Structure of Alcohol dehydrogenase-like 1 isoform X1:
Amino acid sequence: MQSCCTIHDPTAAVCRGAGEPLVMEEIQVAPPKIGEVRVKIICTSLCHGDISFWRSESGPFSFFPGIFGHEAAGIVESVGENVVEVKAGDLVLPVVQRNCGECRDCKFKGNACTKFPAASLNAMPRDGSSRFLDKDGQPLHHFLFASSFSEYTVVDMTHLVKISPEVPVDKACLLSCGVTTGVGATMKAAQIEEGSTVAIFGLGTVGLAVAEGARIRGASKIIGIDKNLEKFEIAKKFGVTDFVNPTSCGKDSVSQVIREMTDGGADYCFECVGSTSLIREAFDGSRQGCGKTVILGADLHGSPLSIHPLEILTGKSIMGATLGGIKPKQDIPHLAQKYLKKELRLDGFITHEVNFEDINKAFDLLLQGKSLRCIIWMDR
C-alpha cells in the first residue's frame, strides 16, 4: 500500500543534546518517497553504537536533535513508489549496512554496497533529507538509516530486510545488528574452521555472538577476555570454554597469556570493544603465519593503529567487518532459519525488557554493564 499522508502525533524518544536523557515528543512522520518504506516499530533495543553516537558532542558524528535507535523489528505500514520487495503487513528489520543487490559489491565479494555515493548517516540516503518534523515543524536528524526510537520511521528499501513472521519479534530484533555482527563475523569475515582456536576481546552482545558463532562452526577452544567477572558465567552458555581477566594477568600481557593458552597464538582473534590498544593486543595474540584478527568494535575518536610491515609479511592478517561481513538480505533470513531450527541460540541475549516510555532505563542498564540486550516495547 502506497501512502501520501503524513502521520501526525506519533511518539518518538528525541535526543536534544549529547549525553542528555531522551525526551518523549509528538512528531510528524512524512510518507515514504521513491524506494522508501514507512515502518511501524514493534520493538527496538539499545546497542553500544547508540551510546557512542549519543555521547558525541560535535563533528560528523553529532546527530542533534535527532532520533536514535538502529536495532529493531517492525511491520510495514506503507511503501513508496518502485518498492516491490515488501508490502504492508510484512515483518521487517532495519539494518545499518546497505544491500541493494544490484551494485558490483552486492553481487560479488564484500558487503560495502555502493548503490549511492557516501551518504550522510543522519538523513535519508537518496536525497539527504529528513522524514521527521518535531512539534514546531523543525526537522529531526535520522540515525544510521533506521531511527527506531520512534513509533513510526521511514527506511530506504536498501536498508530493510524482510523476515519470516514465524520468528518472534523480540528475537528478530536481535538479528537487526548486534547478534548478526558477531555470528556473521565467524561465518563470513573469519570463516572459522572446525577445530580452530578463538579469542574474543569483550563479552558484550557482539562478543557473545562471536562465541555462539564459533560454537556453531566447531571451534575447539573459545577464550573470552573481559574485566567483568559476572560475564564469565553467562559466556559459558554461548560456548566460551576459557576466560581471561586482564586485571589478573600479573606481569604478562593478555596477548602473552593467549599465546600460552593456544600453543603459539589463537587462529582467530575478535576485537569487540572498539579500542586501539585492544586491537593491538588481539593482533599480538593471534597465531604467527596464519592468525587472523577481526575488528568489530567501533571507536569514533580512536588513535591510529601501528603495525610493522614484517608482522603482516609473516602471514598474520587484520581486517574490519561491518555487520560481520554479511549481506543482510540474503544472510539475515538464513540466520533466522537457524534460530527456528534451534541451531542458533538467541534467547539468552535478552536480559531486560522495558516499555517505550522507560527507554532511559535501558540506557542506565547498559551504561552500568547490567544488560546485554534490553528489549524496548513500543506498545505493550
About this structure: The mean pLDDT is 94. The longest helix spans residues 205-217. The two ends are 26 Å apart (CA to CA). The first strand starts at residue 7 and ends at 15.
